[in-house]
Amino acid sequence: MTHATAHPLPPSLPFPLPFLFLDIDGPLIPFGVRSGPADPLDRLDPAAGARLLELDCRMVWATTWMEDANEIVGPRLGLPRLPVLSGPDSNADSVPSLRGLHWKTPLIVEWAAAEPFIWVDDEIGALDRDWVAAAHPGPFLLHRVDPARGLTDADFAALGDWLRALARRGPA
């Protein structure tokens, strides 16, 4: 299989590297591959870590794996220890304005502040897109991954294309 190559951003950017908020189940551990009672971690693509590092972003785990992402998943992919987006507030579902909004959405926007970011997840919906568009003043890409396939060459190409376009125009 041919892998698309992501070209890193130039090291002399006049602004910080974008954040990359990364989910595990779906994007890195696809659900569509079934081969008996095998360990789901066996579905990790060992090349995915290097491909993510080539994107030259400030990666943050955005997953229910929480700190286990650093202990279990990251080492299998050759990723360094990454910051972890804190979990949902237990009262989030009781707030009417957040019903239907993914728990990660407001946390990601808060973490990124006005800086550029990419969110890679298999559960991004229209409400999340609308909410981020209204709440985040900077550039962003919400990239939904097919959970049956996980991150593919086409996904990496889309991420790389967005990053190159951002580098050409700058963060504003």
Task: Report what the structure shows.
Helix 4 links the parallel strand 3 and strand 4 (140-144). The chain starts with 18 loop residues before the first strand and ends with a helix. It is built from five helices and four strands, in the order βαβααβαβα. It has 172 residues and is an alpha/beta fold. The longest helix is centred in the last third of the chain and has 17 residues, at 153-169. The protein is globular.
Write the layout of secondary structure elements.
Elements: E1 19-22, H1 48-54, E2 58-61, H2 68-77, H3 104-112, E3 117-121, H4 126-135, E4 140-144, H5 153-169
Parallel strand pairs: 1-2, 1-3, 3-4
Strand order of the largest sheet: 2-1-3-4
Average pLDDT number:
86
Percent of residues in helical segments?
A: 25-40%
Radius of gyration: 16 Å
Taking pLDDT < 50 over at least 5 consecutive residues as the criterion, the unreliable ranges are: 1-12, 90-96
- What share of residues are in beta strands? 5-15%
Tell me how many strands there are.
4
Shape: globular
Largest sheet: 4 strands, parallel
Number of helix segments?
A: 5
Through-space gap between termini: 37 Å
Spell out the helices and strands N to C: EHEHHEHEH
